[in-house]
């Protein structure tokens, strides 16, 4: 009788260990998918398109330096080849803004999204992000 009890306890312990290990592995795959073989988003190439100083509507001015993040490795050469067209578009967008359109963080985020949209029209959708490296207005 004691032999059956010990056998039953050993089997129960083994089942518990197997279920615990299996549950842990499953939880890691479900709740931490980055470690389960899914590759994280890769940053695209960064292309500086320079510094811009523009007169804003109403008499203020803006000085900013802009870098573009491409969508993939192929974007870098395309963005560099279209740099002059991209700079022209940036000047056009910025010179149509007022001081109120650039002075708050929320306004800058709206400006970033507008530039992204306008520049992607020139760059055939190869731009993932617009980065303001400096941003001075007066």
Verbal overview:
Belongs to the FliL family. With 138 residues, the chain is of the alpha+beta class. It has helices spanning 2-31, 75-81, 83-95, 105-122; strands spanning 46-55, 61-70, 127-137. It has a 3-stranded antiparallel beta sheet, with helices on one face. The termini are far apart.
- Biggest beta sheet summary: 3 strands, antiparallel
- Provide the CATH topology of the largest domain: Tetrahydropterin Synthase, Chain A
Beta-strand proportion: 15-25%
Spell the H/E element sequence. Answer: HEEHHHE
- Overall CATH class of the largest domain: Alpha Beta
Helix content: 40-55%
Domain tally: 2
Distance N terminus to C terminus? 91 Å
* CATH architecture label name of the largest domain: 2-Layer Sandwich
Number of helices: 4
- Give me the Rg, rounded: 28 Å
Poorly predicted regions are: none
Mean pLDDT: 86
- Category by helix and strand content: alpha+beta
CATH superfamily of the largest domain: Band 7 domain
Lateral strand order in the biggest sheet? 1-2-3
Give the tally of β-strands: 3
The shape is elongated
């Amino acid at each position: 009788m004691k032999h059956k009890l010990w056998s039953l306890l050993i089997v129960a312990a083994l089942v518990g260990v197997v279920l615990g290990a299996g549950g842990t592995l499953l939880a890691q795959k479900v709740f931490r998918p980055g470690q389960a073989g899914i590759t994280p988003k890769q940053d695209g190439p960064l292309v500086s398109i320079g510094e811009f100083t523009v007169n804003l509507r109403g008499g203020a001015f803006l000085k900013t330096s802009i870098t573009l993040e491409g969508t993939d490795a192929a974007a870098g050469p395309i963005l560099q080849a279209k740099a002059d067209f991209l700079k022209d578009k940036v000047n056009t967008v910025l010179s149509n803004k007022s001081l109120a359109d650039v002075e708050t963080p929320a306004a800058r985020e709206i400006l970033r999204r507008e530039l992204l949209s306008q520049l992607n029209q020139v760059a055939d959708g190869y731009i993932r992000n617009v980065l303001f490296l400096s941003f001075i207005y007066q």
